[in-house]
Specification:
It comes from Gimesia panareensis. By secondary structure, the chain is mainly alpha-helical. It is built from five helices and no strands. The protein is 63% helix and 0% strand.
Length: 89
């Protein structure tokens, strides 16, 4: 795992209050996979009501912002189908 990818996982985990190890174990390949893993993890690890959980759109926007900040890619060029490892090259 590259340093950029590790930093993305660390920032995402911190932002959403979930365990970094959990995200790494779920092994996301694409941006879409990472968003799905965040949604699944927040739903199972939280005591918040479903109405208090971030929406898919909020998660998407936060993930794209984090990836952009870490990798330098413009947010509008980061798509759901992008492989995380390719964004980190």
């Amino acid at each position: 795992m590259g340093i950029d990818l590790l930093e993305i996982y660390m920032e995402v985990a911190d932002h959403f209050g979930i365990e970094e190890e959990t995200l790494v174990q779920l092994d996301a390949v694409t941006v879409q996979d990472l968003i799905h893993n965040i949604m699944t993890t927040t739903e199972t690890q939280t005591t918040q009501s479903p109405a208090e959980l971030p929406s898919r759109q909020e998660i998407h926007e936060s993930v794209v912002t984090i990836i952009s900040r870490v990798t330098g890619h413009p947010p509008n060029e980061i798509t759901l189908d992008h492989r995380l490892i390719d964004l980190c090259d």
